[in-house]
Design brief:
This protein is of the alpha+beta class. 19% of the residues lie in helices and 32% in strands. The radius of gyration is 25 Å and the shape is globular.
């Protein structure tokens, strides 16, 4: 890794928040834009959509970009993601130009391994939508093990997080007449047996948390109306959510039933549901995740330093195992340390086959797969390509087969199948052809020194012969929150619509993410959120110091938490950039906890209703920091009316405030589709084309527009 170039003027003070602006709800002139489908708000949306689409779709380059994006997202030339069934067959959910909403389909493993598998359709969601006159978006299935015949199919109206669930017979391929049917709600369900579900839903007044998620778990028996289900557990309104799940062994036998009480986004209590209906809290760390049950061993990770009931001490990031039966009988039994990642390592996935634990372990943001034997927890490394991203796919419960994906910024995705019970090397069963011309391109990894001295890695994808004179159109992408890692991956749209046309793509691995494990994330939580923003600014400064790009040619992009990231850069260091794509953003951090699922994120950001925490949020909340007289470039903000996770009011109010202050802004709101996605592939292609048309105008055109 190349050392960091000395940073340019770090810590340039950001403009102060506009005094009195939106310090309280009464002072916010744009609260009416939070009325999601209010007539006045939707009139505003339609007017802005018309203007922005007129500008961007009127650009002569838009149609080419749109056709390229449409061809990519509708392409059949994709790896169908496989899911093992217990009978050895493979399931897949598939979308293309003929199946816009998608199909659930099935084939044999032998057929899947061929170039042209023979698929049988289980459920056609386009046909279902047409038959019912609905806009169904598929959100997954939960099938009863071990038979896997009876399933719950989750359907979303237009792409919202809230779903309805219907019982489906995967053999007859029909919805079960008079079967389980759960009305639209956020929440979930778990099979106990063929006649019993554990459900967490909206059961009416007083059953949802302030975050809008279920607070109550009930037991629903076949033939019983939902409103007559038996209450088993009730959380607190201040919790994020409450849910239940059944822990099963590789044979599908239920070993324990647990209730997860999420106190906040990162801390949760685990309660055991006893046979008599009572509950017992289990002594696991509040910051922990149960990852697998393999050969009778319960495997979990701890995201905090922890002293077990046995007196053993474990560190943040450790992977720990208990003998399940012994632990259920006596929680003070000895635990086993399976893995302790180093400072520059991070676990990005854990799963289990019938007899082996499998871990995706990254070192300096490059992935490898390790296989552990539960008999003694010895490990071997899977023989896969190096210096890439690896992803753990479906693992078989009936044997030791597992799929693993491999990808890189310039490496088209490939899928590997291995049988861990043999010594045979993994077999590449699928690979994608190149979707863009990467000839002459390369990937560099650099480090930037953040304001507090922390070295922040970032990747630069570019043509090897690019001039080092600051003239390169550069797109800097970031997220920086919720322990979500930005790992090397092949993006056909970035490659075709940006890299191939001479653009440079940069990915910042800032704190707040999970690239180096829980501590990397926790370093930018709550009162330390600004560290993540400073990390992102440091990367922008480093790019300029290396003469890779310069302000007229540097743009930024991010969505959701990443949209907040973009807002912070816009309001703190607008002098560094000439464009920003702000996708489905958080923006008004004084009100985020009052809008939709926002209260669930207080574990990440803090609570703006508490004065001390509001003070640190005020240091970066973009909506409050927007001010006159700043060098803000024209920005492109987009959101979705149907987004029931991040409220579209954030994006609307950001655009309205910018316009009030006299700044140019492009705003687009997809009136269908959920968080960060269109309801169908055609809408997704349009959104992508709009983004890259905007970036072309801002960063590639000469002279740069101001």
């Amino acid at each position: 890794m190349t050392g960091a170039v000395p940073a340019l003027a770090q810590n340039t003070p950001a403009p102060a928040a506009a005094e009195g602006f939106a310090q309280s709800d009464a002072s916010d002139p744009y609260l009416w834009l939070e009325e999601v489908e209010g007539e006045r708000a939707m009139e505003w949306v339609r007017a802005h959509n018309a203007r922005s689409l007129g500008v961007l779709q009127g650009d002569p380059r838009y149609e080419t970009l749109h056709q390229q994006a449409l061809a990519l997202v509708e392409s059949r030339d994709r790896i169908p993601s496989p899911g093992f069934n217990r009978d050895g067959t493979i399931d897949n959910f598939w979308q293309d130009a003929e199946h816009v909403r998608g199909i659930w389909r099935r084939t044999t493993l032998d057929s899947y391994r061929t170039a042209t598998p023979t698929w049988e359709t289980i459920l056609d969601f386009d046909a279902l939508s047409a038959a019912e006159g609905a806009n169904w978006v598929y959100k997954g299935t939960t099938c009863l093990s071990p038979g896997e015949r009876l399933c719950l199919v989750y359907l979303s109206n237009g792409g919202k997080d809230a779903t309805e669930a219907r019982e489906f017979d995967s053999e007859t391929r029909t919805f079960v007449d008079g079967g389980f049917s759960l009305p639209e709600s956020k929440g979930g369900a778990a099979w106990v047996d063929s006649d019993t579900l554990l459900i967490s839903r909206d059961f009416g007044e007083g059953t949802l948390t302030t975050s809008g998620y279920p607070m109550v778990v009930k037991r629903l028996r076949r033939g019983q109306p939902v409103d007559q289900a038996e209450t088993l557990f009730t959380g607190q309104p201040t919790d994020v959510s409450v849910s239940a799940y059944v822990l099963r062994d590789a044979d599908g036998v239920a070993k324990a039933t647990f209730i997860n009480r999420a106190i906040n986004f990162y801390e949760a209590e685990t309660w055991r549901l006893n046979d008599d209906g009572s509950t017992t809290r289990m002594p696991l760390p509040l910051k922990s995740n149960i990852n697998a049950l393999v050969q009778g061993k319960l495997v979990f990770t701890t995201d905090q330093d922890w002293t077990a009931p046995s007196g053993q001490t474990f560190q943040t990031g450790d992977v720990v195992a208990y003998d399940l039966d012994a632990w259920l009988a006596d929680p003070a039994v000895q635990a086993t340390l399976v893995l302790r990642p180093t400072e520059r390592e991070a676990i990005e996935g854990i799963t289990a086959t019938r007899n082996r634990l499998v871990v995706a372990l990254y070192e300096n943001v490059r992935g490898g797969v390790y296989v552990y034997d539960p008999a003694d927890w010895s490990r071997t490394r899977m023989d896969l390509p190096q210096n890439v991203s690896v992803g753990l796919g479906s693992a078989s419960e009936t044997d030791d087969k597992i799929f693993v994906s491999v990808t890189g910024y310039l490496n088209p995705s490939s899928l590997w199948l291995t049988d861990l019970s043999t010594a045979a090397a993994p077999e590449q069963v699928k690979s994608l052809p190149a979707k863009f011309d990467a000839e002459g391109m390369t990937v560099d990894q650099f480090q930037a020194r953040s304001a507090d001295g922390t070295m922040v890695p970032y990747f630069v994808v570019h043509k090897a012969d690019m001039p080092m004179d600051g003239s390169n159109a550069t797109l800097l992408y970031g997220y920086g929150g919720f322990q979500s890692s930005l790992l090397p991956g092949y993006s056909a749209t970035v490659g075709k619509l940006w890299l191939e046309r001479g653009g440079v793509y940069v990915i910042a691995n800032t704190r707040g993410g999970g690239e180096f494990g829980p501590r990397w994330h926790q370093a930018a939580q709550g009162p330390n959120r600004q560290r993540a923003h400073e990390d992102f600014q440091a990367v922008a400064l480093d790019l300029t110091a290396r003469n890779i790009t310069s302000q007229p040619h540097l743009g930024i992009m991010g969505g959701s938490q990443g949209g907040l990231f973009m807002g912070a850069m816009l309001t703190q260091r607008p002098d560094l950039i000439n464009g920003a794509v702000i996708q489905v953003p958080l923006f008004d951090m004084f009100r985020f906890n009052k809008l939709l699922a926002g209260a669930s994120w207080q574990g990440e950001y803090g609570n703006p209703d508490i004065p001390a925490e509001r003070a640190w949020i005020a240091e970066y909340s973009p909506y409050q920091r927007l001010a006159a007289g700043q060098p803000y470039p024209e920005v492109f903000i987009h959101t979705s009316t149907k987004d029931d996770r991040v409220h579209p009011g954030h994006a609307r109010k950001a655009a309205a405030r910018l316009e009030e202050l006299g700044y140019p802004v492009l705003f687009y709101e997809n009136t269908d589709g959920g968080h960060a996605a269109g309801a169908n592939l055609r809408e997704t292609a349009r959104r992508i084309a709009l983004e890259y048309t905007y970036l072309t105008r801002r960063l590639m055109d000469q002279p740069a527009q101001e």
